[in-house]
Structure formats: C-alpha cells, structure tokens
Amino acid sequence: MASYTPVARITNMIGICGDNCLSCPRYVSTQSGSPEKWEEVKKLWVRLGLRDPAFPAQEMTCYGCKPENKCVYSELRACANERTIENCGTCQRYPCGLINAAFQKSEMFHSHAARVCTPNEIAMLKKAFFSKKQNLDRIHRKIKERK
C-alpha cells in the first residue's frame, strides 16, 4: 500500500527551480479550494503582468511542480527530468548556467514586483519565488554534508 502524506503535514516542497510551492499563492489557493482565493491570485497575477484579465481564475490551480504543469523554466525542467533529479539543488553540476539564468530571471521579476505589489505581497512572493537560490543552496549543502 502506498504511503500518503496529508498536505497539512508537508513542510517543504521545493520545485525543480527552487520555488517553494507551499508559499506559492496559486498552490495555496488550490489547497484552500476557495474560488475567492483564486480570484485574489488572479488579480495579483494580472497586476504582475502574468495573466490576461480575461483568463479564468479556476485555470490557475496548481498542485506543485509536476510534469503536466506548464513551466516557465522548460529547459531546466527537461534537464532535471533527464537527470531524474527532484530539483537543481540535488544536481552534481549545481549551480549550472540554466539555474543561474533562472536566478537572474527571478531577480528581474522581483524588481518588477516591487513596483506593483504591497509589502505583504512582496514578502509572500519572496518566500515563494524570490528565494530560489537560498532554497537550492541549502539542499545542495545538505547533500554535500552527507557525503
């Protein structure tokens, strides 16, 4: 019988690129199941320029970093899938050019978000998306310590 971990007990869900899924507004709204939460996230995504206002909020559901999800970092995902690694922090080549490009893209997005978001939104986005390098560095360091 397969083991089952309830969502409430998961404490760390770092995606391939280092994003923290447990802090992602899309993931959080999906877990809540609340249409109102999806609408809040949609408004934020529209303000950030990530979605068109006509985009249906319910299509923003997210269950974490999964192969069927559309990924902003498709080359990074392909590399991780080819290497059969959970995230880039577990890669022997970390940090590589692909992940460094993702870090750079995230920093540019952080600058944009700082202009259009409230301090609370920035804090949430930082935890979810703008701490990629710190998340992956921590994972990579732990793996190296085990060896």
Keywords for this entry:
147 residues, mainly alpha, 52% helix, disordered N terminus
Protein described:
It contains six helices and no strands. It has 147 residues and is mostly helical. The protein has one domain (14-146).
Cα shape: globular
Q: Major β-sheet, in short?
A: none
Query: What is the domain tally?
Result: 1
Helix content: 40-55%
Kindly state the number of beta strands. 0
Radius of gyration: 16 Å
**Which segments are poorly predicted (pLDDT under 50) over 5 or more consecutive residues?**
1-10
The assigned structural class equals mainly alpha
Residue fraction in strands: under 5%
Order of helices and strands: HHHHHH
Calculate the terminal CA-CA distance, rounded to whole Å. Answer: 32 Å
Give the mean pLDDT.
87
Give me the secondary-structure topology.
Layout: H1 25-32, H2 35-48, H3 74-83, H4 97-116, H5 119-128, H6 132-146
Briefly summarize what is shown:
52% of the residues lie in helices and 0% in strands.
